[in-house]
Design brief:
By secondary structure, the protein is α/β, with parallel strands linked by helices. It is globular. Strand 4, helix 4 (104-132) and strand 5 (135-140) form a beta-alpha-beta unit. The protein has helices at 17-28, 40-52, 67-81, 104-132, 143-146, 154-174, 195-202, 207-212, 222-233, and strands at 8-12, 32-37, 57-61, 86-89, 135-140, 179-186, 244-247. Helix 1 packs across helix 9 and helix 3 packs parallel to helix 4. It has a seven-stranded parallel sheet, sandwiched between helices. The protein contains nine helices and seven strands, in the order βαβαβαβαβααβαααβ.
């Protein structure tokens, strides 16, 4: 169903976790990949992995909290491949702790990366997609704030709630220009160094114990988050406007 042959796909936060999983999935389906992160070693590992699949791509150091670096990354993508078809705004930071007790500077850090970084991405990605005649953007939101609250992760949740607001408003602005913007909210995926698995480790739980927290009684698989993202990025999803797709095994339904 999903054919991304010769499509140019930009992924932020590609060094690990969801970013690496999605880079691999798009590579498998024929895409050309533009990858960025601030973890250069991890970013180069992801690049090597997608090239091992025979995909064309490049990695560039870019901090999404800095608009100039986001703009430069989009420009380099177009310089290399001639266009931009799909963007996955995945880069994020997490600082856990009691919502009202963390230093205010921590909130600034999360806003700069998670919220402003997504805004900078959409701003420059849409500008290029308008030149193409269309495209699609998928933003990483979270079930935290959109579906549920977490006492020791409120600042992160607040920024992800902001991502949802940006997604919905931006989607309406560009829907008539053949540009789709949506978001995905996930939880309970068994992906190394993902936010959920770090949370499990912080609470000294095993994978088996974590699976019992999920109504479906197992953790999510990488191919399941990939399939959901590939759908939202595909031409088949052009009639989906400003949607937040929840993929969490029923975790928020408890």
């Amino acid at each position: 169903m999903f054919d991304f042959a010769n499509k140019v796909v930009l992924i932020t936060g590609a060094a690990q976790g969801f970013g690496r999983v999605l880079a691999d999935a798009f590579a498998e389906h024929g895409a050309k990949l533009a990858l960025c992160d601030i973890n250069d070693a991890g970013g180069e590992e992801t690049l090597a992995a997608i090239k091992g699949r025979g995909a064309e791509g490049f990695y560039m150091h870019a901090d999404v909290s800095r608009e100039a670096e986001v703009e430069a990354f989009v420009a380099e993508t177009v310089a290399r491949f001639g266009r931009l078809d799909i963007a996955i705004n995945n880069a994020a930071k997490e600082i856990a702790g009691p919502t009202l007790d963390l230093p205010s500077e921590d909130f600034d850090t999360l806003i700069d990366t998670n919220l402003k970084g997504t805004y900078y991405g959409m701003k420059h990605q849409v500008a290029q997609m308008r030149k193409n005649g269309g495209g699609s953007i998928v933003n990483q939101a979270s079930i935290t704030s959109s579906m549920t609250g977490v006492a020791d992760n409120g600042l992160y949740g607040a920024t992800k709630g902001g991502v949802i607001g940006l997604t919905k408003s931006a989607a309406l602005q560009v829907a008539a220009e053949n540009i789709s913007i949506n978001a995905i909210a996930t939880c309970a995926f068994d992906i190394p160094n993902d936010v959920f698995m770090r949370w499990v480790e912080d609470h000294h739980a095993t994978r088996e114990e974590a699976a019992e927290w999920v109504p479906i009684k197992r953790l999510g698989r990488p191919e399941e988050i990939a399939a959901a993202t590939l759908y939202l990025a595909s031409d088949e999803a052009r009639f989906v406007v400003g949607h937040v797709l929840t993929v969490d095994g029923g975790f928020t339904a408890q």
